[in-house]
Write a structure and sequence with these properties.
CATH topology of the largest domain: Aminoglycoside 3'-phosphotransferase, Chain: A, domain 2
Number of domains: 3
Shape: elongated
Length: about 550
Amino acid sequence: MMSSISNSNDIFHSNQVLPDYVNALLNPETYDFDVNEITLIQTHISYVFLTGERVYKTKKPVNFGFINQLDLKQRHKNCIQEIELNKRLAPDIYTNIVTIAKSRSGEFKIFTDNIKEDFIIVEYAVEMKQLPSKAILGNILEKGTVPKEFSRQFAELLLDFHSKNSSQNSTIKFAGESAMKNWWVRESQEASKFIGSTWNPKEAEEFNETIQKFLKQNTELLNNRTRQGNIVEGHGDLHSMHVYLLDEKIVIVDCIEFNDWFNFRILDKGYDIAFIAMDLEARGFPEIGDDIVGRYIVASGDETLPVLQPLHRAFRAFVRGKVESIESQQIGIPTKQKREKAKSASEYFSLATKLIGKGKEPVLVLMCGLSGTGKSTIGSQLCARIGAAYLSSDIVRKKIADLPLYGKISRQQRDEIYSAKMTEQTYRNMREKAEQYIQKGYSVILDATYTNILDRKKVLDIARKYNYKTLIIDLKTTESEALSRIAYRMFDHLNVSDATSAIYRGQVEQLVPITEKEGTVMVIENNDSPYKIVQQIIQKISLLTDNK
């Protein structure tokens, strides 16, 4: 959630000064350790006190519909929840719940145990270790110096986190299509009061129409993802100001604790990861967000997660716009800060419209190329951008063989999954799945070497059977670069391909070159960033689908 620094009027309570306990916590003498300076940060639901050594966070007595913590008991419960839930991704940071109490003489004190008899409880606070601001991902990004392995490490962390926090009891009623529609109705109603101020009326109308259409078209998918166990008790507020890079260790703080409704902390895992992708794009680093999501898609083997990514990212930008709008209209906020919040809110609403798009004609993309040419990197990022199902031969062959998607396998297992018989079965399985997705109206990306012209033709014939536009990507790189990438995979924990240099050379011998006679072909020399290549492909797809 967005925050503001303030040491004067309480910006979230009309015509009120800061509560007495807040003023007391701004006094260094209130603490039982040396404090030189205290910084107060406010969000729409919290007061946060930075003391240099520790952080104290109290809950504001507010009711915004999606959060109601007017009652002190509820605020105490939320403090307990905050510590328990955040220990999952920040195990050593959240230390205690403290009591803020006031004596009969008006003195305020912080108690970690039982309070004294002449004191009464005023508020509860979460106590945390204060982490260095220079370690916040959002601040690191401003300097443009993100560690090389960050995307892989972040994706790996989230994969592990989500696997351990599956919400197995989530039902269609709780998290299916009707739940998503109900969530959107509530959210759009809450944001409707900002239409004409921070939300452009034309954009608001277009966005709502597109969302209604998208939800109607994807009823079955939303229900199936719930049935298939894709709902997790995730983080819910996964943006770069909550991510810390500490000695090459990633720590994530401040998950949503105040609400157990669908689409807050309990959500589709794709919606959880969509937040960081959207946030990074809003900050000018879309390539990092795409890299994280692409790695997650490949390593999870989740074929339909990317179908919903445009929706999920757009929803994230929309919610951000709503929250920023709330803060921009709070009484007591400085005029300059109000303008900044309003401007930011408008930018988020505009980004939401951009991310959801207007709905394009579905397309089938054949991602061809030898091992090591970057098919999976490009294909997984592309599918998340255009909302396509993703079928990878590396993933499909391992699922058929009942092998873990990533991690080392034996030489015998590798020989078996790359045998001619297994390869034929893999390609057949991919065609069958592609046809199923086409029948549902999804765009589909098939990622495989496709060295054999007959294998390519069989897939393209299925697409043409359903009058789908097709695009063949012929991805190329030098032999030395391909072999270098194949060798590097040994050190990538999320790598799902088991191709070796020997397998690569076999592919070279088997390759039947792609020609224009097969269909629309886009030859790409993979010597640019994945993000730029994906954008080039998207432009080509737009030309295909716009030319009806």
